[in-house]
Every structure is written in C-alpha cells, then in structure tokens.
Design a protein that fits this description.
Blueprint lengths: L1 H36 L10 H21 L14 H12 L5 H10 L6 H15 L3 H16 L43 H19 L1 H4 L5 E2 L8 E4 L2 E5 L12 E5 L3 E4 L5 H9 L23 H15 L3 E2 L3 H9 L52 E7 L21 E5 L15 E5 L7 E2 L3 E3 L2
Parallel strand pairs: 7-10
Antiparallel strand pairs: 1-2, 2-5, 3-4, 5-11, 6-11, 7-8, 8-9
Keywords: Oxidoreductase, Signal
Protein name: Hercynine oxygenase
EC number: 1.14.99.50
Length: 457
C-alpha cells in the first residue's frame, strides 16, 4: 500500500505545480501585454495623464491577478485616483531629471513624501553644481550691467529669488510672496502710486514691443486694450464636438457644445516680458530667472493662483474684464473649426507644434519663443505644445453632465484645475486638441503657463 501512495502523491504534486505554472505564465503574459501598451512619457508632469489613459488596462491586469490567485509583476501604478498613485507617477516622471525645479515641484506637492529625502539630496547636489561657476555668473552680471547702460537696452532681467521652503501640503493654498522691496530715497514730490504703476507697465511693454515685432504690431483684426496687454483675437460664436471617445475616460463622452457668447482669446500665451510688467507694478510675484530667462518665451512655473493675480491686475490697468478661458472656449479656439485629432489633421506633422518629437525648432531645456510655430486657422499660436495652459474650470474625471454652453464648470472650494495643450517637454501624443490634464491650483510647475481671455460686450 505504501508503495502505491508515494507515486500517487508525486503525480498529484506535479499536476498542481504544472497547473500553477500555467496560471502564472498566463498571468505574466497578460501583465506584459499591459506593460507594452502603457504610454508613459518621461516628461509627463506628475504622470497623471498617463495614469488616466492606462487605468482600464491596469484594471484588466488586476482582474487577471485575482482570477489566477497569483502575484503579477506590478505595472507601476497604485489604484486610480489615490494620492499614492499620483506621488509615485510624479516621482517616476522626474527621477532622472537634471532640472532643480522638478525636484522643487515634487517637494512642494509632497513635502513629507516617500521620496522627499532623495529629492532634497538631488536638489542640493544640483544647486551645488550650479554654484561652482561664480566666474561665469560674474561675467554674465557684468554683461547685463553694460547692456542696461546702453540706450537700446533689452528687457531687464528679473532678480532671482532664493529658493523657498516647500509648501506644507498641495492643498494648502499660500499667497505667493510679493517682489522684494527695494530701498530708494523718495523724491521730494512723489507721483501717485497708480501713475507710477501705469508708467512702469508702459515702459515694460515698450521693451517687449522692441524685442518681438510679432507681438508689438497687432494685425488689422487684433485687439490690444493697453500697451502692456496681450494681443487678443475675437472668436466668432459657434458649435463643435468637445472631447473624444478614446481610451481616456477623462476625455469622454464626446459631446456637442454651443458657444453663443462672443469672447476674445490671447493670440499667444502670456510672455515673460508681459508678466514682468505686472511684477514691475508690484501686482505679481517675481519668478525664478532659471525658468523665465527669455522675455518673449511663454512665462511658466506658475500656479493657477498666480494666473488669477495677473488677470486681476490686467483688468485694473485695461478697464476690461480679463479672465482665464473656460475649458470649452480653449478647445473651441484650439480646434479652429476642425474635428480632427490635431488642428492640422489626424497625423502628426513635423514643425507644427513645440514638443519633444514634433520636429524643429525645439530645445530640450526650454520652450521656444511664442509665435515660433505656425498659427491655426483662427490665428492662435502654440495651442499645441509650448507650455500647459491653465483654464478656469474645476477638474472633473469625465465630461458626464458637463455644461454644453461653453461656460466654466466650477465647484465650491475647488482645489484642482484643468490645464490644456501639452508642453515642449511632452511627446506628440499630448498635442491632440482633446488632451486634458489636472493640476493642483496652488502648486507651481515649470511646464505650466497660461493665456488670457475676456468677454466681448
């Protein structure tokens, strides 16, 4: 009897092992298929967009794991819409970065995160490397002084501010610090503050005008409400299909939107020079020169709260009700009457957008100056690539129950806002007219900027 029991037990053991091996192999094959389909971009800001696009595939992998009762190699994401998921995908998107601002953005969002010590160490190293060339900095400062003394001086370079401490939490809104006060002896008869601010803004606008003729010379149908105001284009009311029915739930369902109100949208994203006019009027915070060196580049490293300060100041100096565009207004202008994936067609065309694999001109370290790429059919520049652009809407995970009249979709005490358009650091897959993304309204990120809008009454 014993002679029979041992062989039978061995056969049963081998059979179970074979079955388990087959289950594990099948599960790994399904997991590998999911990993192959993942669309992670190295420079995806925060990794949130990738998380949304791959959620359904990750869910399928999870179901496979449950079915076979075995552990599958993880695809790198936590369950959807969890703080752990966002932190991990954020870190994965910047972990190999050589930009100090990337680690600053992470520490602002996750001051006590699991990667905070490593982020702080890398930030310290990058700052130390940057400070090893004092001679170069001195030479640059001397050149700037000579340029400033010239009658045809270029735009003044903003004084870089010391690196600020990380914000307590991404939800805790903090008012950006005002520009550092300068000690000057007051004249015997000081002009009124409003007059001084207006004169300063006009001087900054004149500098910007000399530096960029495309901005300084509005076309016959362009609108410019004040010398320091961005150039606007009036948008004719109409209707369009917003969103797209693809694998990203946040862009579904595609739905018809009718914009019956007239509005105007900025021809270009707000530039560094235009932002500095607000800084000169002590109405906007001074930004780091590291990310805002070129006066005609789109201003960036801004939060939604920063953009609100700018439109408030712009409304005051122009007398017009400036604001951020709604998400529907932005997409309507970006599509420019088309229903295709990109505003120029269904296929990527080199040289049409400022992104990392969209063709020249392109530079890895910073976006090109505004207007460096062709305008769409409505005359708007850089609606694809350049910088992500803030809109007024609160983030919703899909378009279910979205307004169909083009107005802002807001919520009380909203902490997360919508950004659109992609950036120079992203791939062609983010240049689609329907691509949308979310970001904490109080957190700055070096690839985030904005353009302004106002109603036409």
């Amino acid at each position: 009897m014993r002679r029979l029991v041992l062989p039978v037990c061995l056969l049963i053991s081998l059979g179970l092992t074979s079955t388990l091996r087959s289950a594990v192999q099948a599960a790994h094959e399904r997991s590998a298929a999911v990993r192959v389909q993942l669309r992670f971009e190295p420079q995806d800001p925060g990794g949130y967009a990738s998380a949304h696009r791959t959620h359904e595939r990750i869910t399928a992998a999870s179901a496979t794991r449950q079915r076979y009762g075995v552990e599958i190699v993880r695809v790198g994401l936590m369950p959807k819409d969890t703080s752990q998921e966002y932190e991990i995908t954020f870190w994965n998107s910047i972990k190999d970065s050589q930009y100090a601002s990337d680690y600053e953005a992470y520490l602002k969002a996750y001051p006590n995160g699991r990667f905070a010590p490593l982020a702080q160490a890398r930030l310290t190293r990058l700052r130390a490397e940057a400070s090893k060339s004092p001679a170069a900095s001195a030479t640059s400062a001397t050149s700037t002084m000579h340029a400033a003394s010239s009658p045809a001086a270029a735009a003044p370079t903003p004084t870089p501010t010391p690196a600020s401490a990380p914000a307590p939490t991404p939800q805790a809104k903090t008012t950006p610090p005002p520009p550092a006060a300068q000690t000057k002896t007051a004249p015997a008869s000081a002009p009124p503050a409003a007059a001084t601010a207006t004169a300063t803004a006009a001087a900054a606008a004149a500098v910007a005008a000399k530096a960029n003729p495309a901005i300084s010379k509005p076309g016959p149908h362009d609108i410019q409400d004040c010398p320091s105001c961005p150039v606007l284009i009036a948008v004719t009311p109409g209707n369009f299909t917003m969103g797209i029915d693809n694998d990203d739930a946040s862009e579904r369902p595609a739905h018809r939107v009718t914009i019956s109100h007239s509005y105007a949208l900025a021809k270009y994203a707000v530039t560094v020079a235009q932002w500095n006019a607000c800084v000169a009027a002590s109405a906007c915070p001074r930004l780091s020169n590291e990310n805002n060196a070129s006066p005609n580049a789109p201003v960036r490293d801004l939060s939604w709260d920063d953009a609100q300060q700018y439109v408030k100041w712009l409304s005051k100096v122009s007398g017009k009700p400036y604001r951020l565009p709604t998400e529907a207004e932005w997409e309507y202008a970006a599509r420019a009457g088309t229903e295709t994936r990109y505003w120029w067609g269904n296929d990527m065309r080199k040289g049409t957008a400022n992104c990392k694999d969209c063709g020249p001109p392109w530079h890895a370290e910073a976006p090109n100056d505004v207007g460096s790429f062709p305008a769409n059919a409505f005359g708007f520049y850089d609606m694809a690539g350049g910088v992500w652009e803030w809109t007024s809407d609160c983030w919703h995970n899909s378009y279910k129950n979205a307004p169909n009249d083009g107005h802002s979709w807001d919520e009380p005490n909203c902490q997360t806002r919508v950004i659109r358009g992609g950036s120079w650091r992203d791939g062609a897959g983010y240049m689609l007219a329907a691509t949308r993304f979310k970001y904490d309204s109080s957190v700055r990120y070096e690839a985030n900027g904005f353009r302004v809008a106002r109603d036409m009454k």
